[in-house]
Design a protein that fits this description.
The protein is of the alpha+beta class and 269 residues long. The chain is built from six helices and 19 strands. This is Metallo-beta-lactamase domain-containing protein.
Length: 269
């Protein structure tokens, strides 16, 4: 594990060292922003010295998440999605250390990593290497955003089953490769892990959709209609968003439909 690669303090994405790179390309994009104090870089070693630690705990009964405390970058948490053939880590966090890896191993380890979009790439290559260079699934539409060389598997099309009962769906919200993960859920009624492709808002009866969250740029209505039509045939009753506690618990398919209708009505569609 290399603990010295630079991590952007604002978005939390780890990159290859490049002395000529003055600004994080993820943050320079209009969907993100360069920190008000200017571009700043940090490493896993420095984060450890500052007191950051990995946290592995239940998001809900039987489903474990991985976070960082104090938070780094955007502050997302990843999910350890269980099933036949091993666990999938959906989305990633910037920080990883031996203790956090051991805590994940206690939950069965990881067999694959899948990413929703570039803001949540975190230290994906370090996580992959910590579990034996497991595959990292990124939709090919976001290939240009991959920040480090590693065992990255570019997939194409609308859907890809990466392990039994874990299927990626390219919804295209937020980024062209914006992806959610469908699985049977703990209760067998079906669940979506969505990061902020479908973001679970503070009123957890609803989700919403944006092209840029920090800069408040709305997503195109046609993109939302397509995305909802892709997940609508799938059975799901729960949506797990990208942060601790951001969960639509029960009736999620209807809530996603109504959320899309509400959004479209407000943008005049």
């Amino acid at each position: 594990m290399d603990r010295h690669h630079p991590i952007c303090r604002t978005c939390g994405v780890q990159r290859e060292p490049d002395a000529s790179r003055m600004v994080c390309p993820v943050c320079a994009d209009e969907r993100q922003y360069v920190g008000w104090g200017g571009q700043r870089w940090v490493s896993i070693t420095e984060l450890h010295a500052e007191g950051h630690r990995g946290v592995v705990r239940e998001e809900s009964r039987g489903l474990w998440g991985i976070g960082v405390e104090p938070s780094v970058g955007i502050g997302q948490r990843a999910l350890i999605v269980p099933g036949p053939g091993g666990n999938v880590m959906f989305d990633c966090v910037p920080y990883v250390d031996d203790e956090t890896v051991a805590a994940v191993r206690a939950q069965g380890g990881l067999a694959a990593i899948a990413l929703s979009h570039p803001h949540f790439y975190g230290s994906m290559v370090e996580w992959s290497r910590a579990f034996g260079d497991i595959p990292i699934y990124v939709h090919e539409a976001d290939a240009s955003w991959v920040p480090r060389s590693g065992n990255v598997v570019l997939w194409s099309g609308d859907q890809r089953e990466i392990l039994p009962d874990r299927t990626l769906v390219n919804c295209g919200i937020h980024f062209p490769g914006g992806t959610v993960l469908h699985w049977p859920g703990i209760d067998g009624k079906g669940a979506l892990c969505t990061g902020d492709i479908f973001t679970v808002v503070m009123d957890r009866r609803w989700v919403s959709f944006m092209y840029s969250y920090p800069n408040l740029i709305p997503e195109h209505p046609d993109t939302i209609v397509r995305a909802v039509s892709l997940v609508d045939p799938l059975p799901y009753d729960t949506v797990y968003g990208g942060w601790w506690g951001r969960v639509v618990a029960g009736g999620a398919k209807d809530r996603v439909r109504r959320s899309a209708d509400r959004y479209l009505a407000h943008v005049g569609r």
